[in-house]
Amino acid sequence: MKLGEYQRLTVVKKLNFGIYLSVRPEDEERVLLPIRQVPEGTEIGDELEVFLYKDSKDRLIATTNRPKLTLGGIAVLTVREVGEIGAFLDWGLEKDLFLPYKEMTAKIQPGMEILATLYIDKSRRLSASMKNLYHLLKRDSPYHAGDTIQGRIYEFGHDFGTFVAVDDLYSAMIPSHEDCRKRKIGDVVQARVTNVKPDGKLDLTLRKEAWLQMDDDAENVMKRIEAYNGRLPFTDKASPEVIKRETGLSKSAFKRAIGKLYKERRIEILENAITKIN
Fold first, then answer.
1. List of residues 6+ apart from 154 with CB closer than 8 A
2. How confident is residue 27, by pLDDT bands cut at 50, 70 and 90?
3. Helix H or strand E encompassing 217
4. pLDDT tens string 267-277
5. What pLDDT was estimated at residue 209?
6. What CATH architecture does domain 210-276 belong to?
7. Class of domain 6-63
């Protein structure tokens, strides 16, 4: 019996509340398929494809329904409830799927859609996890550099970047120098493919092409200068870390932005500061 997987089992016994299935007719290990799910006309000796999980009383049970997630797979599931020891996810079966707190990568709330995988815990129960999804995503996407895609954020790698599942299937990452501080796990973003690595993983950017992005960046920098009462206490000579922390931009993007503002005579660049021209 394969917990958490589809398999073909043989009907070995019929009762008024359901039928019992086994791998082989002579096997003692059997599993119940409730009567409401038994296909009409099913007889002893027939084979049925079923999915095996555990019911609310922790008993192995079969279903002909098709859950959204199987063992070792990956799928987007809706958070139905969050309790003291974990959360419960809607995965298409009568019993919700349990997600322990230790398997969460972020705080979640009812109604959120999250990417998760299915595993068997130490108590031989099926549980969900938001961890270790990176190795489950595919690397054979149909996308090329320059394509616009849609993806779901599933992990923040901090030093590496922000990990994204393109179409909830393909492995991708937004580099760490892009500002994703306002994003959260489960967010669906539209991005542009900047590179397809030799192993098939995608590099993404949330930014427009430089000549299009520059206008937005310039306005954001201007707002930042105004927030400092018209005097930004650093210039493009500051370290990339300071520029990123204060503006959310890379050093090169910051230079382009203040260059545009300077040409428009909206700012003055001093030795250690940038000031607004009134």
1. 105, 114, 115, 130, 133, 163, 164, 165, 185, 186
2. confident
3. helix 210-227
4. 999 988 999 98
5. 60
6. Orthogonal Bundle (1.10)
7. mainly beta
**What is the reported pTM?**
0.73
User: What's the CATH code, domain 137-205?
Assistant: 2.40.50.140
For the chain, where do the domains classified as CATH 2.40.50.140 start and end? 6-63, 74-129, 137-205
Q: Which residues pair with 23 in a beta bridge?
A: none
CA distance 256 to 201: 29
The string of pLDDT tens digits covering residues 107-123 is: 999 999 999 999 999 98
**Residues linked to residue 172 through DSSP beta bridges, in sequence order:** 164, 202
181-184: long-range contacts at Cβ-Cβ below 8 A with a sequence spacing of 24 or more? 181/248, 183/153, 184/106, 184/153
Per the model's pLDDT, the better-predicted residue between 252 and 54 turns out to be 54
Q: Which CATH class is domain 74-129?
A: mainly beta
The single-letter DSSP state of residue 219 is H
Residue ranges, CATH 1.10.10.10, the chain: 210-276
Q: In whole angstroms, give the CA distance from residue 129 to residue 114.
A: 10
In this predicted structure, the answer to whether residue 210 has a pLDDT above a threshold of 60 is no
Q: How far, in Å, CA of 134 to CA of 155, rounded?
A: 9
